[in-house]
Amino acid sequence: MRPSRSALRRSAAHLAPAAAALLLLTGGLAACSADDADPTASATDPCAALTAYGDFPDGATVTIATAFTGTEAERFDASVEQFEECTGIDIVHSGSDALETVLRQTLEEPGAGEATSTDLPDLAVVPQPGLVRDLARADALTALPDAVGANVELGWDRSWMDAGSVDGVLYAAPLMASVKSFIWYSPVAFEQAGYEVPTTWDELVELTEQIVADQAAPADADGAKTAAETSEPGATPWCLGVSDGDSTGWTVSDWLEETLLATRGVGAYDAWAGHRVALDDASAVSALDAVGDLLLADGSVAGGGEGAVKTTVEEAGQQLLDGSCYMLHASSGYENLLPAGTEVVTADSAAVGAATGTDTTGGAASTAPATAAEAPAATGGVVSAFLVPGVADDDAGAPVIVGGDFLVRIAASDGDGADEEDGTAPDAVEAVMTYLTSAAWAQARVELGGVATANRGVNASAMSSDVARRATELLQSRQSVIRFDASDSMPAGVGTDVLWSALTQWTTGELDSKQALAQAEAAWPE
User: Fold this and answer.
1) DSSP letters along 162-211, please?
2) What is the rounded average pLDDT of the residues 134-150?
3) Which residue, 79, 117, 266, 382, has most beta carbons within 10 Å?
4) Do 213 and 310 belong together in one domain?
């Protein structure tokens, strides 16, 4: 870990006291680093590929706030180590899962904290385009420089630049991306239970019902259970964790959006996401009812809705690995939250064969397939993921929902973004922004694992995770039909506040589908 040389001090004219407090708390954290060199650099001179970014004097510091924690934060820090060494810029990274809440509070308390001096970051990474737009219109962000815009235009599809632009001005540059339309499962558990990956929405519903029925089935005449019952006792079709602090409810929002897209198609999704129809339109109400039929029917989720709201997003992943549930809807980036030691594989990986005692490479099986009389199945610590099966869009295949992390520059109250006393200069901030939006950084970051990207300058074959690689190839393809996460693109007070809260109440049975969505509709700004 490189020690922090200094922290930037500037006025909090645009940010609320809650934001100032958080950023003051995190401002002194230094960027962690790894021992690996930048894979894009020369083997003899690792700095050769970074000379274009400049050579800065000792004390040059750029601060960046993100929502990255744990492994994700460590990998981000490792991805910029070589850049720091070669340019002399100290990137001071502070990660907090409260970042989104704090940024939303700045919009709820406009003008508060004027003339208050505190630690604010030069840069931030924001996961919601809707929040970016709200911050830009509140004058809390600075437009990004041309060099950053050129990187985005070169590497990313136009839709990503549009997502980060407000009134034609680029305020947010995509850094990483994810495919949200994945269902995680253990091929080992599926193999031992005799289940197959569904290829249509109806098959997904049928599989859910089959697992519930299998778990409730009595033993046969010989006292043996079905193959499906060789999983952990009481295994449910679905893992569902709704609890996530101030962001509780987003997993249900993801399910609503996924079901609307999968069952009604792109047209209905676009109309709802773009608010061309009300949020409580019949199409959305029907989709939410379908989510309830799939997830909240007896036996579908441990503890039902009440149990799901008490289960964290991370605990749901542990349940998947424990074999207490079969499937978990989550993005390609969810592997960052899986328990240590989890192996992400292809469905026909040799690891699956080793865990099940079968040969998936085409040779003879090492042992006979599992039978009802054998020991309960386990996941073997092995997981994979398949795309949510849905309605195909003409010849382009089923559409998928995507999300991303966007780099923004926090507006400086002094107007020039410089604070020589604390070591930050505009040139250093621009150099960091330009590097983070380059294909070189994207390649370095994806090779560290746990993330995908839509940057077409990245070689996906170098990625170690099969799910992240497939997500990246899908994101890079011009033939893919992608749609941005609807709630992330809505005004922050609606999509990531009222909607999430209402859907949490829906999960526990306090509200029905119409009532929950009507609450979100009522919150839409006039």
Assistant:
1) HHTEETTEE-EEEEEEEE--EEEE-HHHHHHHT----SSHHHHHHHHHHH
2) 95
3) 79
4) yes
